[in-house]
Design brief:
This protein is an alpha/beta fold and about 220 residues long. Helices cover about 35% and strands about 20% of the residues. The strands form 2 sheets. The protein has a 9-stranded mixed sheet, sandwiched between helices. It has a two-stranded parallel sheet with strand order 7-9. Helix 1 links the parallel strand 1 and strand 2 (about 30-35).
């Protein structure tokens, strides 16, 4: 399946997003990467993507719609990156949900959410944990996406690392015990699912592993 319409990556300056943009543009896709600061634009251009400077935390649905207009696919790769619970909810939950609503209004076909392995209402993170707001925010955002009319895929990588990764992953019983997942691998999976209609409506949890991505994605 080719990618005929532009892909917009929200959170475009993140480590996974930069890798994914490069993979997609080298394969011939048109990629727009949404960033918060103009000084990040050259890093985006180096991947072959086009930078769009916009603060998704501040934009309403209409404003996000203008950013996403013309896109065929949206990849949510943004995040508050820790810090205050208030900002975590504002970005990882509220802005993510607005981006989904904007995508629906603008006729975006595909929406890929980068979540994490174990996300959901039964995440089990205690309320006194610093990770709790993120877990709650992701649970709410993922649920909203599943209930939307978008052709969604939710990706659940394990603990992210900067170790070199290839074209193989672990899924199901083949996941690594420590769930370590290279950002290279996450980016490769993002690019792969955008071309795979059989990944629509699926939550795919994975880690580094030994199974070729194409083969692994055929498993339910």
């Amino acid at each position: 399946m080719s990618i005929d319409r532009p892909v917009t990556i929200i959170g475009g300056h993140g480590k996974v997003a930069l890798r994914a943009a490069r993979i997609l543009t080298e394969a011939g896709a048109q990629v727009n990467s949404v960033i918060r600061r103009e000084e990040q634009a050259d890093d985006i251009r180096e991947t072959g993507a086009s930078p769009i400077v916009a603060d998704v935390e501040e934009l309403d649905v209409e404003g996000l719609g203008e950013v996403l207009r013309g896109s065929g696919s949206v990849v949510w790769a943004a995040g508050a990156g820790g810090g205050s619970a208030e900002r975590t909810y504002a970005v990882d939950r509220d802005a993510a949900i607005r981006s989904m609503d904007a995508s629906s209004k603008e006729g975006v076909e595909r929406f890929v959410m980068i979540s994490y392995d174990g996300a959901g209402p039964d995440h089990g993170v205690p309320e006194d944990s610093s990770f709790y707001p993120y877990a709650e925010a992701k649970a709410a955002a993922d649920a909203h996406l599943r209930d939307s009319d978008l052709q969604w895929t939710i990706l659940g990588p394990g603990m992210l690392t900067d170790e070199p990764g290839g074209e193989t992953i672990g899924v199901g019983d083949d996941k690594r015990e420590d769930r370590a997942t290279s950002r290279d691998v996450v980016a490769a999976v993002v690019a792969a699912v955008l071309r795979r209609p059989d990944t629509v409506g699926r939550t795919i949890e994975f880690s580094d592993g030994q199974t070729p991505i194409g083969e692994a994605l055929t498993r339910e």
